[in-house]
Amino acid sequence: EAQVTQNPRYLITVTGKKLTVTCSQNMNHEYMSWYRQDPGLGLRQIYYSMNVEVTDKGDVPEGYKVSRKEKRNFPLILESPSPNQTSLYFCASSKEGFYGYTFGSGTRLTVV
Amino acid sequence: GNSVTQMEGPVTLSEEAFLTINCTYTATGYPSLFWYVQYPGEGLQLLLKATKADDKGSNKGFEATYRKETTSFHLEKGSVQVSDSAVYFCALSEPFNAGNNRKLIWGLGTSLAVNP
Known about the structure:
The complex is a heterodimer of chains A (about 110) and B (about 120).
Chain A: E1 4-7, E2 10-13, E3 19-25, E4 31-38, E5 42-51, E6 54-57, E7 65-66, E8 76-78, E9 87-94, E10 102-103, E11 107-111
Parallel strand pairs in A: 2-11
Antiparallel strand pairs in A: 1-3, 3-8, 4-5, 4-9, 5-6, 7-8, 9-10, 9-11
Chain B: E1 3-6, E2 11-14, E3 19-21, E4 23-26, E5 32-38, E6 44-50, E7 56-59, E8 62-65, E9 75-77, E10 86-93, E11 104-106, E12 110-115
Parallel strand pairs in B: 2-12
Antiparallel strand pairs in B: 1-4, 3-9, 5-6, 5-10, 7-8, 8-9, 10-11, 10-12
């Protein structure tokens, strides 16, 4: 089944403790992206990747890192999480943007 | 810059009622347009899409037509069901050009509740 798999689904952590949210797709898509979803602000892009070793900032990249060492994986790294990063995170992949995007099930992160 | 505006919710309907959720956009060039749906506690699913003017996207009884003259992509369904209760997002994909990251520009979502 074609899918984007994110882990974990839920995570509660403490301020400053490094964490990684994993994202993997099995569709051989070049393009992958991370979004965060917040009430009243909608979905905002954090980082994106056009292909292996090609990544760039989206609209809200502060406090996040990404890497793209393999085509299928695009982890999101929070080196020192803070409470303002409490949010619902989605990973997405696409072959070409106009075909649409496949999203993971989301990761609900709470930083206390 | 590019933007998407969709009607605010929540929208509450009775089963079998007609649904319209308005979506208008601002974009240079010819974006692709999408409707995504988010069921309670779940991720985002592509509901339908249209890639050029006058295209009609359709899926699961939902339809939307890409209207360039009115820059709109309104979502419609003739007879909603309780199972259609969800949040609906209108989005556009910026036209691809050099340096463009193909990100999605999102509306804020419209919550739909369908009562039996």
